[in-house]
Amino acid sequence: MTLTPALQPIFSVGTESIVGYEALARWNDAGLWRRPHESSPDWAATDLAMFEKLAEIGDSIKQKSACLFVNVSAYTLDQTNTFNNWLSIASDMADVMDSDCVIEITEQIPDQLLMNRWDQLRALGTSLAIDDFGDGQSQLARLQGYDWDFCKFDAKRTVDMRDAGALLYCQKEDIKMIIEKVETQSEKILGRLFGLDWQQGYYFAKPQLITELDCVKD
Questions:
Q1: Which of 19, 23, 94, 100 could form a disulfide with 125 if both were Cys (CB 3.0 to 4.6 A apart)?
Q2: Integer distance in angstroms from the first to the last C-alpha of the chain?
Q3: How many domains does the chain have?
Q4: Does residue 75 register a pLDDT over 70?
């Protein structure tokens, strides 16, 4: 299978402009495009391959005045050799994009592992985001325990007011909030009422392969 990153735009609903893209892994399996849960990937190899391919378009994204959000998996953080290789590639990306490159810390990463790697992640010079707040390890204690730049909230949890405490904390600490998985106009409107101006989801746009996107072309 061949990996190609796809990008899903993140919009500012206030300015109606694209402010970022999340990079998502897609595999071509004999002409069929598969998402991660459909392909059982080697996540350590995937993290490395994603950054290698995204490094080629980092400058194009920066020229659009947009951030690039990229996940890192627990598998990469847990394996020292893989993590060091990933750090080298991520550092190259940081040299191009600085804080406009945002590393998303996924909810599967154990607390001790994140604690062990945090200083090295911070030293990259990128921004850091807590992903999928409310799921797995992405809880209030993790949000309050580290110096985050971004926090990503699930649309359905947000409109149900399940994460009100976290929203207030982010506003107090000046952590940029993003509502993702927005699928309806009501989720968009309620999200903005709760202070989440940056929004992402199928309501706005589906992910597109980087080979199909104008934002990575000169």
A1: 94
A2: 28
A3: 1
A4: yes
Q: Which CATH number fits the domain that encloses residue 108?
A: 3.20.20.450
Q: Which domain holds residue 6?
A: 2-216
Helix (H) or strand (E) holding 116: helix 111-123
* Residue 216 pLDDT greater than 80, yes or no: no
For the chain, what's the residue count? 218
Backbone phi, then psi, for 32, in 5-degree steps?
-105, 130
Distances (CA, A) of 167 to 55, 89, 116, 158, 178: 32, 33, 27, 9, 10
Residue in the structure block whose two tokens are 């209030």: 140
Judged against a pLDDT cut of 90, whether residue 155 lies above it is answered with yes
pLDDT at 63: 80
Burial class of residue 40, CB neighbours in 10 A (0-12, 13-18, 19+): exposed
Strands 150-154 and 127-133: parallel
pTM for this predicted structure: 0.92
Averaged pLDDT for residues 157-165: 93
CA distance 190 to 184: 10
